[in-house]
Design brief:
The chain is mainly alpha-helical. It has one domain. It contains four helices and two strands; from the N terminus they run βαβααα.
């Protein structure tokens, strides 16, 4: 998780939560295009309603497409 100390690190929130919960490897992305391509696939988007219930996750949400 050292990469998370950087200012411009892109990680998928679903992967991030899985990483915190059960140690799943954290995937980082070199640019927004790679991040978006990965994130828009099914089961890789964090539900908006679930995110709104968690203040920490809510502030991390971004529109990706």
């Amino acid at each position: 998780m050292q990469a998370l100390g950087a200012r411009k690190v892109m990680v998928n929130l679903v992967n991030f939560v899985d990483h915190l919960s059960n140690g799943t490897p954290l995937k980082t992305f070199a640019n927004f295009k790679e991040f978006r391509k990965y994130t828009v696939k099914p089961n890789r988007k964090f539900g908006k309603e679930a995110a709104k219930q968690n203040g920490f996750i809510r502030v991390l949400l971004r529109q990706v497409g």
